[in-house]
Amino acid sequence: MISPRIKGRGAQAILPNKFENLYLDKDPGDDPADTAPQTQYFKETPKNIVSKSESPDLGVMHSINPYQGCEHGCVYCYARNSHNYWGFGSGMDFESKIIVKPTAPQLLENYLCKFSGEVTPIVLSGNTDCYQPAERKFQLTRKLLHLFYRYRHPVTMITKNSLILRDLDILKN
After folding, report:
1. Percent share of the chain, pLDDT over 70
2. Shortest CA distance to 72 belongs to which of 4, 146, 162, 170?
3. CB of 20 within 8 A of CB of 13?
């Protein structure tokens, strides 16, 4: 028997975290529609917000991810496995347990004030979509864009969400 799909979720299973010894599984008789997880938000207060990657494939790249995990739930997402480092699984946890970094704007401003190197674009959401549904509530991307504009620092973005249109007033400048 094929289980019915959980509407609005790309992952259809709660996957174990490869770094954890214990794993809680659903009862096979549970109806997926009754067990579909609700989105939860977890706050993280990092010391830095700009990450530097020196991938041989991409060269040196700086990025900011105001959110970890993504409610879009794209089954092809390369960022799913990064959720394991936060203690969550890469299946439904990735889509329903979203880590929010509310201090991201302050950390970016600190970075831009102290910055003295060669100016290169910072990728906003190099790992997870900065315009995912959580952005409607927290507006971290909009606040970050204001700072990029104020400091005239170049920024690039990766998104699949039309919420980007909300910020055209900043992006056009």
Report:
1. 81
2. 162
3. no
Q: What is the pLDDT of residue 135?
A: 97
* Domain boundaries defined on the chain: 38-171
Reported pTM: 0.81
Contacts of 111 (CB under 8 A, 6+ apart): 48, 49, 50
Helix or strand or coil: residue 68? strand
User: Within the chain, which residues score under 50 in pLDDT?
Assistant: 1
Query: Helix or strand or coil: residue 42?
Result: strand
- Phi, psi for residue 22 in degrees, rounded to 5: -100, 150
Cβ partners under 8 Å of residue 162, min gap 6: none
How far apart CA 122 and CA 58 sit, in angstroms, is 13
